[in-house]
Amino acid sequence: MHLLLACDSFKGTLSSAQIAALLSRALIRAGHTVTALKLADGGDGTIEAVTSCGFSAHTAVVTGPLGTPVEATWARHESTAVIEMAQASGINLLDPTPETALQATSFGTGELITAALDAGCTTVILGVGGSATTDGGAGMLTALGARLLTADGAPVPPGGAGLEQLKSVDLSGLDPRLTDLRLAFDVDNPLCGPRGAAAVYGPQKGAGPTEVARLDAALARFAPRVEQAAGASAAERPGAGAAGGVGFAALGVLGAQPVPGADYILDLIGFHAALDRADAVITGEGRIDEQTLSGKGPGAVLAAAGERGLERIVVCGSAAVSASQLSELGAGSPPPPRVRLHQMTDLAPLDDCLAEPAAVLRRLAEQIAAELPSPEAPQTR
């Protein structure tokens, strides 16, 4: 069989490349052909994925989420730049606390966009996900030339809490070179309210109930002032709440074109062409859950493979959804074969999976290889 591997990282344990290597060794020994792609959906790992498929890597020193400098990587192919927000403003760059939830800024993301414009790029793909921020994109806008001022005419402090002091917004200084921005995301949350950026994603970034309430109120103060200055409404648009409200700033102020994160990145890395040559697909991530069913990363892979009627195998640390639920992704008539779901926690206790993930995944890879039909002769590709 020709197998296409498209796995996301198992965050905190194994990278996408490590997972592909462990799976490939067992599958190739069993005589199968293997093609491996690094999977991403606009969040963590996006730059690694696109630079493995023809984009060149570039670095810039920018402002991290708490104001200290960080070296961030972006990618380029001809005049197109790919920006991974997590590189500049990611939650991986800090230890989340209630204080960081209030203070984290997206300023570095704006600086990274500027670096791409300075290099001559005319199209910018902004992948959001894994952010530390809930500032409505205020930091990003400021880095691109916007002025967000207090009643005294001073710049508002960084972070979502700084927006509590916002009085006026001046967008006249925005960088005029940013004319083709694509926003890659896979959520439909509005900016504010019970499904908004603070309420849904704030707790993941260290915010407790008090901080969530403050951040939501600050974003509600921010939105109408920005919309008045921009002459466009965006707070209720699907995706405005993405990445702590960066979606709002990108869609409502920067004129971003929304694109489905997982599908768009899959196109960039040549996934669909590779899928045409495959007999079966293996995908996965550390935790398979409801977000997978919503089309993020592995979910998009399962849907695309299901539409082609291919056999689909899911590898993960653990799963909160069933194989039957995963099988519904991309199901048509006739339906594709039922998804085979393999969890590392079926082979070892969770503590062992976390302490020695490579050893457990190696055993899981042997199990998968043993279950697949044996080809007549081994091949590599």
UniProtKB/TrEMBL annotation:
Signal peptide: none annotated. GO terms for molecular function: kinase activity. Gene3D superfamilies: Glycerate kinase, domain 1 (3.40.50.10350), Glycerate kinase, domain 2 (3.90.1510.10). It comes from the Bacteria. Keywords: Kinase, Transferase. Belongs to the glycerate kinase type-1 family. This is Glycerate kinase.
